[in-house]
Design brief:
With 186 residues, this protein is mainly alpha-helical. The chain contains seven helices and no strands.
């Protein structure tokens, strides 16, 4: 009778450990899936932005014929963005594209006829809206990555995460040009 209680106790402990392991593993998978879902939301907005750029380039070309360097940089940055194979590459390409687009919008100050063009202004507004959506998506993505990182780095989850090969994901961080202080001149 005593061995029966010991046996039942061992079975209960093993069942508890197996249940804990399953729950922990499923929590890791769920958190990793949320990270991927949030990245997909960013990717949708990046694609929308990339789709608007050819129209923007065409609008600009007619007004700034001798500014081919700026246009070429935007086109090259867009190509990198579209061809990015993973989130890290997409983040780097996004930084380059943001910088290149800044140059295009700076051109509009030098070319009043471009600035007055309705098509250019509509595209600029659409890109502005998309940038806002990207910013929100980045925020949600980074929040999700933080939750996932906490799960796989805090004890005892870190032990199981290492056993099952769960790796940390990168935050979508601002590049150096986005961190620079904005200078306002009157």
């Amino acid at each position: 009778m005593e061995t029966t209680f010991i046996f039942i106790g061992i079975v209960i402990v093993i069942a508890f450990l197996i249940g804990f392991l399953i729950k922990t593993y499923n929590g890791f998978v769920r958190a990793r899936n949320r990270v991927k879902t949030q990245w997909a939301q960013i990717d949708v907005q990046l694609k929308r932005r990339a789709d608007l750029i050819p129209n923007l380039i065409e609008s600009v070309k007619g007004y700034v014929k001798h500014e081919n360097d700026v246009i070429d940089r935007v086109a090259a940055a867009r190509s990198k963005m579209v061809g990015a194979g993973n989130p890290k590459e997409a983040m780097q390409a996004n930084a380059e594209l943001t910088s290149a687009l800044g140059r295009i919008f700076a051109l509009s100050e030098a070319y009043p006829t471009l600035k007055a063009n309705t098509n250019f202004m509509q595209l600029q507004n659409s890109l502005g809206e998309t940038e806002s959506k990207i910013a929100y998506a980045r925020q949600f993505y980074n929040d999700t990555v933080l939750i996932y990182k906490d799960k796989i780095t805090l004890f005892p989850g870190n032990i199981f995460a290492a056993m099952f090969g769960f790796k940390a994901e990168a935050f979508f961080e601002a590049d150096a040009s986005e961190r620079a202080a904005v200078q306002v001149k009157f």
